[in-house]
Amino acid sequence: MNLLVAPMTARGGLFVRPVAPPSDRRHRCAQAPPAFRLVSQVYDMRSGFAGCRYHRQVSVSVPNSETSAHHVGCAMCTGLLYSGETPMLGAECDFASRGQRCQNAAMSDKQESAVHNEVPEEAVPANRYASAPAWRSVDRYFAAALVNEDAALVEARESGARTTMPNAEVAANQGALLGLLAQIGGARRVLEFGTLAGYSTVWFARAVGDGGRVVTFELEEQNAVVARENLDRAGVGDRVDVIVGSAAESAQALIDHGVEPFDLVFIDADKPSNPTYLAATLKLTRPGSVIVIDNVVRDGAVSDEKSEDPRVQGVRAVVDAIAANHDLDATALQTVGEKGWDGLIIARRR
Question: Which of 118, 154, 316, 334 is an S-S bond match for 343, by CB 3.0 to 4.6 Å?
Fold first, then answer.
């Protein structure tokens, strides 16, 4: 396949595309969604994906490959390819079998990556991760300049690789934000849905200070073991209760026991259960308590009312629940960075 590097002036980067025979250049890809067809020229008629702009969002055409139909890469590597970084990054994806994910991608990218010869039902934004390298660079700049990560925090963040969801922990600047929210609100009691390696838990435990308490729910014992190690290493293990099991059941147990209200609640577990977690949270907090819900943008899919993704549906349901609750003041923020395009909801009980 011949390759042509062409500038993308609107994006400020480069993308790599196959060069079509002149007779093919007026064809459009019939499989692409209407919004993409104006820019979906068929560059290579031999390819099942036809090399169109839409399908190249979910497939990386690896240099020296005969067609892009048999080599489908991950969203992260596609973004790097389109941003003008070396196209060979696409070759690092694991194409060995249907369903394999790129081990170099962030967890959010792994979850969304396409697999062999599969085309998503819904369109993804054009050049979805075109700015990803710049986002990561900015994240790292601010983290180095402003985030006071000691060795214990670095170890907690990096130990996410030993959990059931590698690289799914919050970024350093996000962890610092959570700690600041707890400190600004004077939180002494924090509840967390979803522990993983305990990175955000360390931030909360340090924020509540001596005499404060953090309760965190974790479904997997493997993750809880890693988290406890990190909490002890950070010197805050005595401030944290790691409860293993269903978060919904654990929350209900706290409600049944009539525990003291929490000042801040962080919801960062399975997204389809967000409405359940919010309902429990409202019973475990007081007026003035702060509620933070992570991963609510879902690469922009949250605005798609027709989405069949249960994670998107869970986010939209919790947004509806917050909007209908007149005892909550709330806003949502989009974020970009090392964790891709996502965001969070911050709410406060009146």
Answer: 334
Query: In the predicted model, is pLDDT for residue 186 greater than 90?
Result: yes
Using CA atoms, how far apart are residues 89 and 62, in angstroms rounded to an integer?
Answer: 9
The DSSP bridge partners found for residue 344 are 294, 333
pLDDT of 317 above 90: yes
Tokens of 203: 């931030």
Q: Could you tell me whether strands 340-349 and 13-18 are parallel, antiparallel, or unpaired per DSSP bridges?
A: unpaired
Query: What's the rounded mean pLDDT across residues 243-271?
Result: 98
CB 342 within 8 A of CB 297: yes
Is 303 exposed, middle or buried, given 0-12, 13-18 or 19+ CB atoms closer than 10 A?
Answer: exposed
Supply the CATH classification number for the domain 133-349.
3.40.50.150
Q: Is pLDDT larger for residue 30 or for residue 330?
A: 330
Report the distance separating Cα 318 and Cα 321, nearest Å.
Answer: 5
Contact by Cβ (8 Å): 129, 78? yes
Give the pLDDT confidence of 196-206 residue by residue, as tens digits: 999 999 999 99
Q: What is the mean pLDDT of the chain?
A: 75
| 3-state SS, residue 344 | strand
151-158 and 172-184 helices, crossing angle to 10°: 120
Q: Where are the domains of the chain?
A: 1-130, 133-349
CB 164 within 8 A of CB 223: yes
| Secondary structure (DSSP) of 229-267 | HHHHHTT-GGGEEEEES-HHHHHHHHHHHTPPPEEEEEE
CA triple 22-91-155, angle to 5 deg: 145
